[in-house]
Design brief:
Strand order of the largest sheet: 3-2-1-4-5-6-7-8
Helix content: 25-40%
Number of helices: 14
Largest sheet: 8 strands, mixed
Shape: elongated
Distance between the termini: 61 Å
Length: 428
């Protein structure tokens, strides 16, 4: 049985057209024909109409991706022989890996998998998941055997939602394959679109591990800065001023305190710790960082409440405006946003909280978190205002207009260093 040995023989399909899959499929479609598959027929219909609700790919870019065909029909995958899987890998309510989207995608591909085909996974997983969890699903459904009838690869996604500077093609790509020959085929395919170059890992497990520690490292660095912020706040020292001073040294890392959510930093470490515990090791530093970061929403509200009490503002029954709901600035992505921790904690104090976020789809916010953002801002009605997400639009509004939303006595809490130090009453 022969493996695909020439680029022209590859008939590519991208499975999952979300924040990762669509930009990847669109980039490939500038050079070759691509079948873009998603189980959400509504998502497919919107893309066919030239609309990307994630705002990761512009209408112009969609038009330029002339080789991309969208579908939610399994039969349209029969013609393909190279599959790239880009489905979400979230955690459940117990912070354990939820591989169900990945396993469903594997079973789906198994129905159309044929001899000689290659399946590459981009979803973030713990080391070993591709070969230990996904491959058995492919084999069971297809009746084929890995490295005899079909092959797999792994190339972890490095998409940064909302980032218009670091795009698919300009971020170096790690690649790997289940055999040396397949590793080269996978690497060669990605080199078609990745101008930043590729790094061919020695094994799939190495590539999986590399991905999961990228965000674990960032999580721990932010946890350190969050802990320092708590310490400096107790000492009456301005955290940002400390970080600016320390940042004058060439090798000081420029991390800032804040909420840690999203589909990467707030999730990926749990994949690594789950696997570590499965092999008999209990991680200490990683989980300590996670606990600290997961507690920052409650800490922020405690700061706010103390500031309100000092100003003799009645906390119970107070009205608070939370500006921002997405997990990061300048994008509509709500996945694993930790702003909901602030909202939950405010409810514990019987505070009435309004949420304003011009980036958010109200239906998505209601469906995901039971939150209905306000459409318009009212002046002079809030006892406190929290700047929770650093959207550029909030910077444009400015401190004076933001303060105008509050009552004569109110607290302005700048959680994201959007304003100058003297313009806010409280900063993290």
């Amino acid at each position: 049985m022969s493996i695909i040995d020439h680029s022209s023989e590859i008939k590519l399909a991208v499975i999952g057209l979300g924040y990762v899959g669509l930009p990847l499929a669109a980039e490939f479609a500038k050079h070759r024909t691509v079948v873009g598959f998603d189980i959400d027929a509504g998502r497919v219909a919107a893309l066919e109409a030239g609309r990307d609700v994630t705002l990761e790919v512009s209408e112009q870019e969609l038009r330029e991706a002339s080789g991309l065909r969208y579908t939610s029909n399994l039969s349209d995958l029969v013609e393909c022989n190279f599959y790239i899987v880009t489905v979400p890998t979230p955690i459940d309510e117990h912070k354990r890996p939820d591989l169900s989207p990945l396993l469903r995608a594997s079973r789906l591909i198994g129905k159309v998998l044929e001899k000689g085909d290659i399946v590459v996974f981009e979803s973030t997983v713990y080391p070993g998941a591709t070969e230990e969890d996904c491959v058995p699903e492919l084999e069971a459904v297809s009746g084929l055997k890995l490295n005899v009838d079909f092959y797999v690869g792994y190339s972890p996604e490095r998409i940064n939602p909302g980032d218009k500077a670091h795009r698919v093609s300009t971020i170096k790509k790690v690649t790997a394959g289940s055999t040396p020959e397949v590793a080269e085929i996978v690497d060669r395919l990605y080199r078609e679109i990745i101008v930043a170059g590729t790094h061919k890992a020695s094994s799939i497990r190495v590539a999986e591990a590399a991905k999961v520690i990228e965000n674990t490292q960032r999580d721990l660095n932010i946890a350190l800065i969050n802990e320092l912020a708590i310490i400096f706040n107790k000492m009456g020292i301005e955290t940002e001023a400390v970080l600016e001073a320390a940042g004058t040294k060439w090798n000081f890392l420029p991390f800032r305190p804040g909420l840690v959510g999203g589909h990467c930093i707030g999730v990926d470490p749990y994949y690594l710790t789950y696997k570590a515990e499965a092999i008999g090791y209990h991680p200490q530093i990683i989980l300590a960082g996670r606990r600290l970061n997961d507690g920052m929403g409650a800490y922020a509200v405690s700061q706010l409440v103390k500031a309100m009490v000092k100003r003799r503002i009645q906390v119970e029954g107070a009205r608070v405006l939370v500006m921002g709901l997405t997990f990061k600035e300048n994008c509509p992505d709500l996945r694993n946003t930790r702003v909901v921790d602030i909202l939950r904690e405010l409810r514990e104090y019987n505070v009435l909280a309004d949420v304003y976020d011009p980036w958010v789809n109200a239906e998505d916010a209601q469906r995901e978190y039971g939150v209905t953002p306000v459409d318009e801002l009212q002046a002079g009605v809030y006892d406190a205002i929290i700047l929770a997400v650093a959207h550029d639009r909030f910077r444009t509004i400015g401190a004076e207009k933001i303060r105008a939303l509050g009552k004569s006595a109110h607290v302005l809490y700048d959680l994201k260093y959007i304003l100058k130090a003297e313009e806010a009453d409280v900063r993290l």
